[in-house]
Write a structure and sequence with these properties.
The complex is a heterodimer of chains A (614) and B (475). Chain A is α+β, with helices and mostly antiparallel strands and 614 residues long. Chain A contains 23 helices and 22 strands. Chain B is flat. Classes of the chains: A alpha+beta (614), B alpha/beta (475).
């Protein structure tokens, strides 16, 4: 074998997969069409957001790269949903796009045991019986052997882009599609399908009257994504907000027939959650305007990203409707928006380890699995990379549970439900979202990263110090008694006289106050740790409730099912259920219970069956 | 007189006790061939012994005079023959009704053996089956197999257990409505409300403050409505329980008021001893009664009066205890004597009692005071009015209106509904006190989960275990 692990594609999934495998001591080759494009952000220049921010911090907690990359290249930071509860708050940062890709590339190139190779993979080498992957075949005819292969082909596998009547074989505008691999997988019997996604136009900033737009400033107190960073600093660029109007919509309506989405040229399913502007205009005819976020693409570029204006209408139509927005009368479109349609492989074909059920040693991650988003891709990438390495070492795979991580929720969802349309992470998908706060990612996953061997010594030491500090903070808040003087100073304290501060903090009115003003000792610790302790205390009751609620889930998830369990021998299971269970081959009873069409009584039956076998 | 009629005892265990002894077998041994008496024990024209298991037909054929006819029998056909005992002698003439898997109650091959009634015959038939290797069924094991083989979901399995033990036709109708999904429909309506609220919460969980509406207060009315529905349904348990387990109705009153006479009148038979000597009834006496569809255990008690006789004093004490534990109390007063201080004291302590003004036929009877029901145990006058009052006292004003209203029948259901209702109360309180949406969402999810326990969407092994062990044998 030439390598232990070959990773196909240097996107956000491929980067994490390659780094994880190499860091776990596996000789790794990253084959990508163009090394210059490693870590390129195809669409919006931002990382994080609701639930996606949690994913980034989870990837970091395990020992991944994405958090470090964004921390190094942030040009604006915001904690979203400050006014709402802790479960729905998440960090989001605007990135300097080219700096982000450069940082990604250098982290990959600097990694010991990892090599980057420029070529496109067109097929796999399989063992004689087809049951094991043994390497890859490239466009230039090379056969490279490997014990494990991770496919992270993003939007490039048989990619095709659409701008009005224009068509091109590309994965991103200006970058050729990766042809061949999709057909190879189809021929080998993999469930390959088509999906589509789209991106908006970029316009020249100096051609826009920015003063006419609403300003959206970042948070003054920036926080790092990575648990390895103490603080977040760097340049600051503002975002802006504008709106479409009736004129914009009229132009779109008049040209709707020219959109490949409506003409029927695109057959792939698009993301419901990130619709094109033509979709929005058609689906919500009553809305007289749609909000558009105007985001800078970087420090050294004059391009602006028009978030919310994704379109595949002809260029001249895009040009025209963009100019209907206030401040955009003179706007110059640098790149048009476009739609891209690409091959994906239905992830029900994978185990929760992201290994193929069809071909041992083959893993898939990112957009290839029908997900959308950088963060989703990175999160699968790290899991695929870890599991490829673990499998080679003969160790059992890492399967993160729904109760411990958004990563676990996402992977369980896609391998159980499959992806019929682009899958993106949502807070509501996580049953244990109160426990899965972004700031608890290290407490949940760094021990896992340490066990697997991915968390560096530095990370492990920092983590140990943080746990000690949090204990100290808890003790500090418990020891500080609310006194009569406190109550005299502020009546909010009146009902809490005699209580420890940690108890009084359960009162929302106390929790809202500046804790340092009450207990100056708290100022000695990083704010996120103090806030973490306070949130833990304040919502303890709810977290416990949530825990009880999903205890059953945990129990079912803990009941393992063999991958080769013969469901057809279980009387009482409907043939439909048997078919679905055989197609999914769940690894736990919990996973079985989430397969659509498998009824609760089927699960009860299986539970009883399993008990009977013991 | 101490021979109280105990009609509510569980089925006598004698008939299957020996099949169970020394048997470490459990529900999960689903390949075993099992058998049990499926009809209530006692004398009757016919009794049905039910056998099931993958090899049940073949096995039964070995104790059958015409084995080939039985083996060849198709599903839903009957074979006539004789059951043969260990010594090969016929123990009974029977008709064996064959059901073939999966079209049977249990989903396995199944034979219903109709034999002659009478405990001795049944015991002989069961013996004959034991000889050829049938194991005595555990309580609920037939239904467990039906569930195991996917023939029945949980809430229906539970209703079966009630159907079997239902004592009156109305109770049967109630269990049947649950079996056919009446309760599920009611629950779905509540769940639909909660799912809507949960979806509204999810919207706020998934989209930023600048994209989605903030005001979760808008969800309050629907949560309030759902909570009320949970509570109503939980309350219906009283009715469901009365229908299922029967209600205890005690006749109380001073000595010689005519309690025993009313007891006999209501039972339509001379069960209790009646005499004009005060203190006739010394112990308490009970009997089963179908009170317009409600299964009722009517208890006659010793009259209340200060007694010097130690035996009677004990009887009085026990009677008061029974009245205390009763679901309804009928307080009887002798109209020819009128209200005494003791009567008034009792009624003050038991404001819900049904008040019967007895002996209105007697010429010296005083006029019926307001709130009292004038009755005559001697002539039967006012009997139906009295029965109606007892009913409404038991049903707490919820007159049963047939199958239209779903009722819950088990304490497990009530417990789940109470938990659901209280979680919704928490959600409402959280929203009202300004807690963020993620908190209320947990409470609503908890409520949904609790409701799922009733419909079987949430199943835990503990529920399964406790459920099937509450069954009686033969089902
Ligand atoms: C037009 C467009 C619009 C998008 N819109 C959105 C959106 O609205 N919201 C959202 O969340 N996400 C959107 N995305 C998706 C986002 O870019 C992806 O989710 C994310 O980049 C996926 O990461 P990945 O690692 O799976 O793949 P990519 O980032 O696509 O990277 C794949 C890499 O693999 C290389 N590669 C592919 N196949 C081969 C091969 N056979 N051999 C060698 N190299 C190969 C490619 O050259 C590329 O570098 C959009 C993407 C595009 C292109
Ligand atoms: N005329 C008339 N006599 C009645 C009626 N009911 C009961 N009696 C008479 O009242 C006397 C007492 O009746 P019981 O039924 O024994 O009274 P009790 O309340 O059971 O008395 P204790 O058991 O002694 O507490 C008997 O002589 C009955 O015949 C009635 O409705 N009309
Ligand atoms: Mg009497």
């Amino acid at each position: 074998m030439d390598y232990d692990v070959i990773v196909v594609g240097g996107g956000h999934a491929g980067i994490e997969a390659a780094l994880a495998a190499a860091r776990l001591g596996r000789s790794t080759l990253l084959v990508t069409q163009n090394p210059d494009a490693i870590g390129r952000m195809s669409c919006n220049p931002a990382i994080g957001g609701l639930s996606k921010g949690n994913l980034v911090r989870e990837v970091d907690a395990l020992g991944g790269q994405m958090g470090l990359l964004i921390d190094a290249t942030t040009i604006q930071y915001r904690l979203l949903n400050r006014s709402r509860g802790p479960a729905v708050q998440a960090p989001r940062a605007q990135a300097d796009k080219s700096a982000y890709a450069a940082a990604a590339r250098s982290s990959v190139e600097g990694q010991r045991g990892l090599r980057v190779y420029m070529d496109a993979v067109t097929g796999l080498v399989a063992s004689a019986d087809g049951a094991r992957v043994e390497g890859v075949i490239t466009e230039r005819g090379r056969r490279i052997g490997a014990r494990a292969v991770v496919i992270a082909s993003g939007t490039f596998m048989e990619g095709r882009i659409f701008i009005g009547e224009h068509r091109a074989a590309a994965g991103r505008l200006g970058e050729p599609a990766a042809l061949g691999l999709g057909s190879w997988l189809r021929a080998a019997g993999f469930p390959v399908g088509r999906m589509k996604t789209g991106t908006p136009a970029r316009v020249k900033a100096s051609s826009v009257d920015l003063g006419a737009l609403e300003l959206q400033a970042g948070d003054p107190d920036r926080k790092p994504f990575s648990f390895l960073n103490d603080e977040a600093t760097g340049p600051e660029l503002p975002c802006r907000i504008t709106y479409t109007n009736e004129r914009t919509h009229a132009i779109i309506r008049a040209n709707i027939g020219r959109s490949p989405l409506f003409s029927g040229d695109i057959t792939g399913k698009g993301p419901r959650y990130c619709p094109s502007i033509e979709d929005k205009v058609v689906k919500f005819p009553d809305r007289d305007r749609h909000q558009i976020f105007v985001e800078p693409e970087g420090l050294y570029t004059d391009e602006l990203y028009l978030n919310g204006l994704s379109s595949s209408l002809p260029e001249e139509v895009q040009d025209e409707f963009i100019r209907t927005m206030p401040g955009f009368d003179e706007a110059f479109m640098v790149r048009p928006g476009y739609a891209v349609e690409y091959d994906y492989v239905d992830p029900v074909d994978l185990y929760a380890s992201l290994e193929s059920k069809r071909m041992a040693g083959l893993y898939m991650a990112g957009q290839t699995n029908g997900t959308s988003g950088y963060e989703e891709a990175a999160a699968q990438g790290i899991v695929a990379g870890i599991n490829a390495a673990l499998a080679i070492a003969g160790e059992p795979p890492l399967i993160l549970s729904r109760a411990e991580s958004y990563i676990g929720v996402m992977i369980d969802d896609i391998v159980t439900l499959g992806a019929k349309e682009p899958y993106r992470m949502f807070t509501s998908r996580a049953e244990r979202r109160l426990a899965l706060r972004h700031d608890t990612a290290d407490r949940r996953l760094t021990p896992v990263g340490m066990r697997v061997g991915l968390a560096s010594t530095e990370r492990a030491e920092r983590f140990g110090r943080k746990l000690e500090a949090m204990d100290a903070i808890r003790a500090l808040l418990g020891a500080r008694r609310i006194s009569q003087e406190d109550a005299a100073r502020d009546p909010v304290f009146a009902p809490h006289v005699g209580e420890g501060l940690s108890r009084a903090l359960r009162d929302p009115r106390v929790a809202e106050m500046d804790v340092e003003a009450i207990e100056p000792g708290a100022g000695a610790y990083p704010e996120e740790w103090v806030t973490g302790v306070i949130l833990d205390l304040r919502y303890e009751g709810y977290v416990a409730k949530e825990g009880r609620l999903s205890a059953r889930l945990g129990k079912l998830d803990a009941t393992r099912l063999a991958a080769d369990f013969d469901y057809s021998t279980v009387p009482g299971l409907s043939s439909e259920s048997v078919e679905k269970l055989l197609a999914c081959r769940p690894l736990s009873l919990g996973q079985a219970s989430r397969i659509p069409g498998v009824r609760p009584s089927d699960v009860a039956l299986l539970a009883v069956r399993i008990a009977a076998r013991r | 007189m101490s021979s109280a009629v105990r009609a509510f005892e569980p089925l006598p265990p004698r008939l299957f006790a020996r099949y169970r002894s020394g048997m470490a077998k459990g529900y999960l041994d689903v390949e075993d061939d099992i058998a049990a008496l499926a009809t209530p024990p006692g004398t009757g024209a016919l009794a049905v012994v039910r056998a099931t298991g993958p090899g049940s037909v073949d096995r039964l054929a070995r104790a059958f005079s015409r084995p080939d006819a039985l083996r060849a029998a198709a599903g839903y056909t009957a074979a006539y023959g004789r059951m043969l005992g260990a010594d090969g002698r016929a123990v009974d003439e029977v008709v064996a009704l064959v059901f073939r898997a999966p079209a049977s109650y249990t989903g396995q091959d199944c034979v219903d053996v109709m034999c002659h009634g009478g405990q001795a015959t049944v015991a002989d038939v069961l013996d004959a089956l034991e000889v050829v290797g049938f194991r005595g069924a555990l309580p609920g094991e037939f239904t467990f197999r039906a569930f195991y083989n996917g023939k029945m979901d949980l809430s229906r399995a539970e209703a079966v257990s009630e159907l079997v033990s239902a004592r009156t036709s109305e109770a049967r109708a109630d269990a049947f409505s649950r079996l056919s999904g009446g309760l599920s429909r009611e629950l779905s309506a509540i769940k639909a409300m909660l799912v809507r609220a949960a979806a509204a919460f999810a919207l706020r969980l998934d989209y930023g403050e600048d994209e989605s509406p903030e005001d979760i207060v808008a969800e309050l009315p629907i949560l309030t409505k759902a909570r009320a529905a949970c509570e109503d349904l939980a309350d219906s348990y009283t009715v469901g329980r009365v229908l299922r387990d029967g209600a205890v109705v005690a006749l109380a009153g001073r000595t010689n008021a005519g309690k025993s006479s009313l007891f006999n009148r209501l039972l339509k038979e001379e069960r209790a001893i009646v005499s004009s000597a005060p203190g006739t009834t010394r112990d308490y006496l009970e009997a089963e009664l179908d009170l317009g569809g409600l299964p009722v255990r009517l208890v006659d008690t010793a009259g209340v009066r200060d007694s010097v006789d130690p035996v009677e004093a004990e009887g009085v004490r026990r009677s008061l205890l029974v009245a205390d534990g009763a679901d309804a109390v009928v307080y009887v007063v002798d109209a020819t004597v009128g209200l005494s201080a003791e009567d008034q004291a009792f009624l003050a302590a038991n404001p819900g009692a049904v008040m019967a003004w007895n002996k209105v036929d007697a010429p010296e009877a005083g006029p019926v005071p307001a709130g009292w029901i004038g009755v005559s145990a001697a002539t039967g006058f006012g009997e139906s009015g009295l029965a109606a009052s007892i009913r409404s006292s038991l049903l707490g004003g919820r007159e049963s209106d047939g199958a239209a209203t779903a009722r819950i029948g088990t304490a497990r259901h009530r417990d789940a509904l109470i938990r659901a209702g209280s979680s919704l109360g928490d959600a409402i309180a959280a929203i009202e006190s300004g807690e963020p949406v993620d908190m209320a969402a947990v409470d609503v999810a908890t409520a949904l989960e609790a409701l799922g326990e009733i419909t079987g969407e949430t199943t835990s092994e503990d529920i399964l275990e406790s459920l099937f062990s509450n069954f009686c044998v033969g089902k």
